[in-house]
Specification:
single chain; mainly alpha; 0% strand; elongated
């Protein structure tokens, strides 16, 4: 799903989104997310990822206020970006290890290797624009 409008947001909107994300992270950390175990691939003391925080919010949703839930929703773009980074990296490793596009396409549920390649190309281009 292409989200060109995200790339065209004025800097004031970017600052507002960053503030919402920061506030949401702080609230969720204060609401128990600071007790989440560090993943083995994370550096010691690294804060929970946006994916971890959104899952934590879902798990604790019955205890959150509407404002806290709105804050958790503001973390979804960051969580989506984290997943896309992991996806591109895993695809790169898979190709480096000799997996074919046909194998990757089947594993990911694409109808053809070409469709998978086009998807990866679009995903990589989106990462290049946001880097």
């Amino acid at each position: 799903m292409e989200r060109n409008h995200d790339l065209e947001r004025p800097s004031g909107a970017d600052h507002a989104q960053a503030r919402r994300e920061h506030d949401a992270r702080t609230r969720l950390l204060d609401h128990g997310a600071d007790q989440l175990a560090t993943r083995p691939w994370q550096a010691a003391g690294a804060p929970p990822s946006a994916v971890d925080l959104t899952q934590h919010a879902l798990w604790r949703s019955s205890e959150l206020t509407q404002d806290e839930l709105l804050g958790a929703l503001s973390l979804l773009p960051a969580a989506r970006a984290e997943v896309e980074i992991a996806e591109v990296a895993l695809l790169f490793v898979a190709r480096s290890e000799g997996l074919t596009w046909a194998q990757i396409a089947e594993a990911m549920g694409f109808r053809s290797p070409q469709a998978c390649q086009q998807y990866v190309k679009r995903l990589s281009a989106r990462q290049d624009r946001t880097a």
